Amino acid sequence: MASIQKPVGTKDLLPDEAKFWQKFRETAFEIFGRYGYVPIETPVFEQTDLFVRGIGQATDVVSKEMFTAISGENLKTLLGGGHIKSKSRLSLRPEGTAGVVRAVAENGLITQGGAPVKLSYAGPMFRAERPQDGRQRQFNQVGIECLGAGEPTIDAEGIIMLMRFFEAIGIPADAMRLLVNSMGCEKCRPAYREKVRAFILEHADALCEECQRRADTNPLRAFDCKKEGCHAVMAEAPRIVDNLCEECHEHYDAVKGLLDATGVSYQEDYTLVRGLDYYTRTVFEVQVIEGMGAQNAIGGGGRYDKLMAEIGGNPAPGFGFALGYERCKIALEANGFKLEPAMAYDFYIACVDDSVRPLAFNVLQTLRDAGFRGDLDHQHRSLKSQFKQAGKLGASRVVVLGPDEVAQGMAKVRDMASHEEVNVPLDQVAAAFAE
Ligand code: HAM
User: 239, CA 20 to 30 Å: which among 19, 64, 395, 414?
Assistant: First the structure.
């Protein structure tokens, strides 16, 4: 029978990597915790409508890349030509923001006059994109969302926190580029959209068909087109920065001022619109400068002051970002990073013969109960291969139990680095480890 393989665009995180992913998340949560962010977990699937309303029907993420989940029962209804209720239309989350904002609204986490709600999350996201290096159909994100505060200090501290995290995991500051822009708000963006629409119609000949269509659906998306020709044309389009209202200008200047004051370097990129429609005011993206081709964005985010109301909650401003674990790992590897073994054993017990095995099992349990990581040979191997096994497992000590030692109530403990051996009373092995 042909063997079954993992779905295209997915990856198994084998133990060494699963352990690193765990450490990666812990580092993120530790750093984000210093800024007041606490973890939240939301479902990996939500009502499709949440993403349609939140992220926007005209985005690639919603119109082309969503995995829609159909229960067996609904599939039967559909195949029979029936209609499924909108509540039962479900999609795997393509990103984390919409679900977190829904959870904040549904659980009433924002309190009148209270501090902003600061939440962090980590987990798999799903987008049916064409897989390539750094682009998967299931990938892992770590992100944060802050709801209930519209002040520029929230944006600035968020951006600084993200840059600090990238540096903490080992991506050198000079290997990254931080791009910032403002998307304006409902006051200044409509007029700007019209200008961009007119520009697209004027330059239609030089733009791809999709960008031409975008003139009517969502003109600003044309800035996001990956085609070289379109990119060059759109670089000449009216700039949002010249079309911001006074409040948006002030907000943008304040964010940049805070970044300047903290010594965080950035570049302004007036073509940066991001692939999701919920953004207002600040948007930003962190790219790796060399070696990652088109998939060079390791993280990004921005402000979304209308999203809460868009999904039916009480209006509240929001800000957040997410970073891609897999892309960060590629960036780290380009800087010499190697995974460490998932398990570094503190000890391994080697039995000289089978007569000592019952006692060895007890010693093993005592050492584990004392907090040490280790094992013994479960497969009745020779003493020589038990030592080999201990080496392979990276055990720092081997506890040798032989009938002679045991008869005297002793064990031999060998330090695998120095090859020193000491005899230790059987009931004091854990204490000897702790020394
Ligand atoms: P995003 O830019 O779509 O933003 O995704 C954030 C990061 O996830 C990207 O910078 C990239 O590193 C990673 N990523 C995205 N798609 C893939 C993929 N197919 N394969 C591998 N990695 C990928 C968001 O998702 C927003 N929710 C960020 C946000 C939070 N904005 C406000 N709050």
Answer: 64
